[in-house]
Amino acid sequence: MKPERICTLLITLFLSLYAFAQPTKVIVRAKAKDAKFIGTGIGGAYIIIRSDLTGEVLAKGLTTGASGNTDLIMKTPYTRNLPLTDEKTAKFETLIDIKEPTFVTIEAIAPVNRKSAAVTASTQLWLIPGKAIDGEGVVLEIPGFILDILEPQTHQVIQIASLKNNQVKIRINLVMMCGCVINKGGIWNADNIDVKALVKKDSTPQNEVVLKSIQDNIFEGLLPVSDKGSYEIQVYAYDKVTKNTGVDKINFVIQ
Q1: Helix, strand, or coil (residue 13)
Q2: What would the pLDDT profile of 80-109 be if each residue is shown by its tens digit?
Q3: What is the CATH number of the domain that holds 69?
Q4: Are both 17 and 78 inside the same structural domain?
Q5: How many CB atoms sit inside 10 A of residue 89's CB?
């Protein structure tokens, strides 16, 4: 066969291969800042992979699996290329068919089932046809806390005569974004976290109440109340070391 003919066949073969999309494996994980991976136990992170050029959604779904090995993630000194995950660690895994290198945006909304606490983290990268992004995959960091006001309840009506010592208990639940436990002296140390309630009465700023850790994930404080009215409580948590933050807000009535 003539060299010209061979060259033509090779070019034709190359173009025919290029014309077909190749399945490309992508793994994405969401990891709570200063904590573990966001998986099934907290409802997962919702992952969206989009073409940056067209906005087309190439893949979407939830991370599933466990939050990971605490000793490995939180206690083992970091070493380059040391995996923080194993086969059980939460992830979103997909195959994306692409014909050519494709620049994508990857978003993680987490924890997706906790709308009041969920945040969106994103990054961008090139996907190369047939070249897997596997192993640890793409890891997106999710900062913050999940904070829920337990007492008083939303729009609860409290009789002022029923109050003990004219005080309303403020009670909140606070966990890491992966669901990990916060307690005194623990890995996620409650002593490092400032928790405070900012109070308004009839839209006017009133007391600020410090909340203290009383058991796993639970912080409490007492709000002095002397007048009837419509109250608003906004509670924040702030980690002095990691700078994680969380907020929740409710309204209630004293009559």
Answers
A1: helix
A2: 999 999 999 999 999 999 999 999 999 999
A3: 2.60.40.10
A4: yes
A5: 22
| Per-residue pLDDT at 2 exceeds 70 | no
What integer pLDDT is reported at residue 20 of this predicted model? 83
pLDDT at res. 236? 98
The span from the CA of 180 to the CA of 70, in Å, is 10
DSSP 8-state code for residue 173: E
Pairwise pLDDT comparison (6 vs 83), residue with the higher score: 83
- Kindly state the helix (H) or strand (E) to which residue 98 belongs, with its residue range: strand 92-98
18/126 same-domain check:
yes
> Which tokens belong to 51?
């073409």
Q: Which domain holds residue 174?
A: 145-254
Q: What is the DSSP letter of 17?
A: H
Same domain for 150 and 127? no
Determine the residue type at 70: T
Query: What is the C-alpha to C-alpha distance for residues 223 and 209, in angstroms, rounded to an integer?
Result: 6
Number of domains observed in the structure of the chain:
2
Q: Is 111 exposed, middle or buried (0-12, 13-18, 19+ CB in 10 A)?
A: buried
Cα–Cα distances (Å) from 175 to 153, 155, 160, 178, in that order, read 19, 24, 32, 8
**Does the pLDDT value for residue 3 go beyond 90?**
no
